[in-house]
Amino acid sequence: VLFQEGPFEVKVKKVTAVDDHQSFPSPAIALSSTEEIKTLIDQTIQSGGGLYDKGYQELCIALYRSILNTILSANDSGATSSIVSDRMKNIICSGLQRAETQIGSKANMAWTYRYTLDALLEEMGFT
């Protein structure tokens, strides 16, 4: 029902309390070029920025964190050298760690992830 206009009904059939948050692994993808990573990041920023601007900071955070973890764990598709360099992995890990220290502020977390995505674009020479 997110972004759905007009009247609608939602019936909640079950609510379950959990002791701890659940986390699922990011999808494993194969990357063949830095241009492919750039496209992935650009699309993520466009979607995440829209969510953030509409007040859905938690969804923005989840989207940004997911793409960072996806890039971090990506497989190279037949490349002779790694598409995701060690420097890029360090940038991602630093951004993820910094954001985790900002749990009290959703805005700060979202912006830290965004700055991390921007740093990746810069590292690849796209800014």
Automatic annotation (TrEMBL):
How is this protein named in the record? Uncharacterized protein
